[in-house]
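Protein modeling request. Please complete all fields; requests missing the sequence field cannot be processed.
Requester role: graduate student
Desired output: 3D structure, token encoding
Chains: 1
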Amino acid sequence: MHDISIISMIFTAALALICLLLILAPFFKWDTFKQFSSNDQDLSATKEALLTTLNEIEFEYKMDKISHADYKNLKRQYETEIASIMKEEEKFVDQSIDKDLMAEVEKEIEAQMKIYANKKGEGK
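Delivered output (124 residues):
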């Protein structure tokens, strides 16, 4: 009988700790452990949401639902936020791009454009 009460006390304590963890878990920021790729995805999602909102504002302005002054203020505000997100995205891209590879790709593009221009010039 004594063994059953010790086991039940241990089980009850473990169950109580699990319940406490589940209750307190939303108060902790687990997303601080995410990697940069998820941050980049968050930026893309935020940028898409802002662009959608900007389109909706423009539509509402064209439908005369908001005033010109409100439209200009909102448009400026959202464009500023989008520009800052694009700058942050550019930082991520700059960090992940190999400069030598990019230079080689640009040379190939220029060579292909010259070939295309020559072919177009011959056709005239």
